[in-house]
From TrEMBL:
Source organism of the structure: Cellulomonas flavigena (strain ATCC 482 / DSM 20109 / BCRC 11376 / JCM 18109 / NBRC 3775 / NCIMB 8073 / NRS 134)
Keywords: ATP-binding, Nucleotide-binding, Transport
Family annotation (Pfam families): ABC_tran
Keyword Cytoplasm among UniProt keywords: no
Cited CDD domains: ABC_MJ0796_LolCDE_FtsE
Record PANTHER family: ABC TRANSPORTER RELATED (PTHR24220:SF685), IMPORT ATP-BINDING PROTEIN (PTHR24220)
Alphabetical list of SMART domains matching this protein: AAA
A GO term, aspect molecular function: ATP hydrolysis activity
Cellular component aspect of the GO annotation: membrane protein complex; plasma membrane
Gene3D superfamilies per UniProt: P-loop containing nucleotide triphosphate hydrolases
Listed name of the protein: ABC transporter related protein
PROSITE patterns xrefs: ABC_TRANSPORTER_1, ABC_TRANSPORTER_2
Amino acid sequence: MTATTTDRRGAGSAADAPLVVVEHVDRTYGSGHAAVHALRDVSLTVAPGELVALVGRSGSGKTTLLNTIGGLDRPDGGRVVVAGREVSSLDEKGLVALRRDVVAFVFQTFGLVPVLTAAENVGVPLRMRRTPVAEREARVELLLDLVGLGPHARQRPGQLSGGQQQRVAIARALANSPRLLIADEPTGQLDSETGRAVMALIRAVVEAEGMTAIVSTHDPVMVALADRVVNLADGRLVDA
């Protein structure tokens, strides 16, 4: 069960097939008395173009759910389908293709390469796909402009603020035009003002790029910007 905020998707979106389907997913770490039930019979769907805020206390299962949807972890039971691919049954090659072509991640830690400029960091996924140079450079320029960092293209991470580094990380996540953006506490290392700006940016890029996004957060700003709020407690979906 979920709580719903204002729906920003517009009329007709309900008729679209879900981009994300989670059905009766369980995930347990350890065994016996030491077992931790991270997810318990979790089921939900996410529509194309929807921005979902995933909320709950630390240890409620948010990160496990995001990792399961994105193919970084496997459920013990149930299944996960993203863009028609059953993630929970993909082999390693299929998971690599999923993360290359369909899903992108943004984490608390920015994960930028210190010796590369902002533009070079954003271009890494495009280099890995062997995108032609002219196309790659145009995409990088577009994305840096989208996140408001065009003038900082030649600066390295150490020359940027935390908020700017997270913007570069978001631009990099968008490089391959993913259908699903998964963000795990993306403002966890930022001050409140910078965090609000990053949250508003995520809302804007979801709309500009036509993506679906699932964002775990404690930030009330993100909750207010979301189309829907999903609440987790002790690994279960609950009412707000």
